[in-house]
């Protein structure tokens, strides 16, 4: 752990890029594998341990103060750590980190250590405390935003859950929160044969949509022929450089799947929320919308409820506005990044790499306008909608034909933000095996 007058953020171990800001008393998590560093006059460096207890470390720091803490940490350091050459300056530290970065193994972004998640949970609660201490900023967002929960009218059990856990605390805060009736794709006039490489037009609720499956790589006479798996694996290796065989096999298998009526219905459901929110943005001054699917729930590991999630999100959106930080989409719940992430916006928010899932996310007015102008609202592909949104982050896809189409539609400088790791929410299927946890908005 780094402590004291320097805070360094490892941007990319392979390119050896670092940023350095002055934040006295800050702690920095160092990726596993770094060498132990020693103290110096102009910065303090605590000994790194693979089994460090981060909450205990912070507690000791708060109780003892930086100077006494460093002395005790150094006294307890193992002999091999003390044998490490002393670091005399920030420049020397950067040089040392660059040397270590060149030796470091690529980081698998889906592997989140218990220590890292424990630290994230602690940072979440610290951020929530800060949000509630300055509640006026979050309260100001109530008139600028709304919450819409996509749910089939027939999903009675899920709706009862949402009414009790989501609407009750949000309505008590004065937040505009309501259901949006989801679209049951099984009731749409779709030709399933055209899911395997064809195209079909669909008119629904006065809007025209194109279900474009022409890029499906499993077509018998497609451009890949018998080499489709090899091509997808090659593309996966190029895009997801740090991911292992499990991720590769899962992504490549999914790429060969066709769309389903349920996935079409899911897209239409989200698209309808975007359209309605954009209309309110243009007529009533709405600035952003939080979209939930009715299987979203707070990550139980974080100990939050929906009131806390709203307070955190609203506080961060207000802070982004104060700092004039533009954004298009903010993932509140997601899958961990599969490609390198960008800069940190706060202790709990980052510019993510490629990530999926749309059980909880926010779209700004700018994002709504840009999605509408891009054609991505009415243009559906053979893959799930969250995969398309994730591809907007990387501007690429393992299916090169689909990548070209996404790139043609992608709004320039699309900016995604996300809460770290898994975000603040999960899906029911992550925590229970039950009838209500099975997919309902996007059935097969």
From TrEMBL:
Q: Which domain of life is it from?
A: Eukaryota
Write the protein's name: JmjC domain-containing protein
Q: Which organism was this protein described from?
A: Alexandrium monilatum
